Amino acid sequence: MSSTGRRADHRVTFAVLATGVIAFSLLQSLVTPVLPTLEAGLGTNQSDVTWVLTAYLLSASVFTPILGRLGDMTGKKRMFVVALAALALGCLLAALATDLTVMVVARVVQGIGGGVLPLAFGIIRDEFPRDRVAGAVGAISSLVAVGAGVGLVVAGPIVDAFSYHGLFWLPLVVLVVAALAAQFLVPESPERTAGSINWAAALLLSSWLVALLLAVSQAPSWGWGSAEVLGLLVAAVVLAVVWVLVESRAVQPLIDMRMMRVRAVWATNLVALLFGAAMYAAFAFLPQFLQTPSSAGYGFGSTVTESGLLMLPQTIASFVLGLVSGTLAQRIGSKVVLVIGTLVVAAGYLAFALAHDSQGAILAGSVVMGAGFGLAFAAMSNLIVAAVPPSQTGVASGMNANIRTIGGSIGAAVMASVVTAHAGAGGLPAESGYTNGFLMLTGALVAAALAALLIPAVRRDPATHAEPDVALRHPEAALVAGGTLVGDDPE
């Protein structure tokens, strides 16, 4: 319940959730285009400054599912406030940082806030009228892509005006306001999952995620065939197998393996892996392409600010189509929207791979990519939310977000290897590296669209056109004691 003892209007709740999610997604991308500035400001080198990204990634991968589970157990609103507070504290530390060590610690603290997204989905499911859930989830999902795009757009002007410290002072103000608003305006979730955190499972989950993400994030600099990378990959596989065995036998698992075996869940997670690989790789390398001096035979020599502005239409398209996605899902189904959105993004990537010699072509391709992002992001989140009971929403959507992040790490690392495979003029990557890289990402998106076809079709309510929860469609997926799922999706 809220502090007033009444349920808040769902539109107020949405505004608070949207503010928190935008701040979180901004912090994912703000530092990417200004790494050289951070390198100089923190007195470090090109290799070590990448830990500003890696530390955040590793921390978010560990805490996202844990906060999702804690939200299901103790209250989603409570953990949403905790996640925002962690983001705010991390911003404060980063804003004050003058050396790499403090900055990396700050980014680790910020990573705790990775639970913001699954907790927001859970709150929406608990608080919104049923016919508004799909639209709200779609809008919040689109804000992830929008926030990431806005981060790329505004990073340059913020650094020019306030130095790199401004990258964290401005989100800090937003986060403090969002945390206070969440505490006093958002009602506490009525749904609870009984039990406690399985800390052995949490440790194993953290261990294999850290091993995997550390390997793929450092592979471009350490070498894919290096002993360090191969050792970490082997460790990740072994630890992941042990984690699955422990979770499968646990009375109170951190992540219910029976839930993960539901076809609507695992198929959507497979799409998330492939989609994340393509999306985050593009966010990392499209600005780099635009900033390449034209003397290399390609690129436009754009500044950080100019490259961000060239990506602004993509951000706008993501937002607009994200708002439309919920309405489309009610009419034609989230699965169809996801397939269409993924193929639209693939078309944008293909256009960029084949035609990138003018800013007009870049803008056109970016708008197409952004439109697909908005459609697919929203539909993916809706499918996960609809596929599990309310008490599993946080952990299921947290794992989906996590798997998308893992895909992003793999995609960015592989893209880096492809782009830098051959040197061109002045030691810069050859143009063919970007062409081959975006063709590879196009293939990943086509594979994601094919994977989306594996998601079971959902019969919509003829009266409301809404997609019912899987627990309502299939009695065998109903909750049993302890909040676990029984059986699999038979479709």
Q: How many strands, what sense, and barrel or not for the largest sheet?
A: none
**In CATH terms, what is the fold-level topology of the largest domain?**
Growth Hormone, Chain: A
In the CATH hierarchy, what is the class of the largest domain? Mainly Alpha
How many strand elements? 0
Number of separate helices: 20
Transmembrane segments: 12-31, 51-68, 80-98, 104-124, 136-155, 167-185, 197-216, 222-246, 266-290, 310-329, 336-355, 361-385, 406-425, 437-458
Membrane topology: Multi-pass membrane protein
Organism: Modestobacter versicolor
Keywords: Cell membrane, Membrane, Transmembrane, Transmembrane helix, Transport
Could you characterize what this model shows?
Helix content is 74%, strand content 0%. By secondary structure, it is mainly α. It folds into two domains: 417 residues, Growth Hormone, Chain: A (Up-down Bundle); 51 residues. The chain starts with 9 loop residues before the first helix and ends in an 18-residue tail after the last helix. InterPro entries: MFS (IPR011701), MFS_dom (IPR020846), MFS_trans_sf (IPR036259). One of its GO terms (cellular component) is plasma membrane. This is EmrB/QacA subfamily drug resistance transporter. Keywords: Cell membrane, Membrane, Transmembrane, Transmembrane helix, Transport.
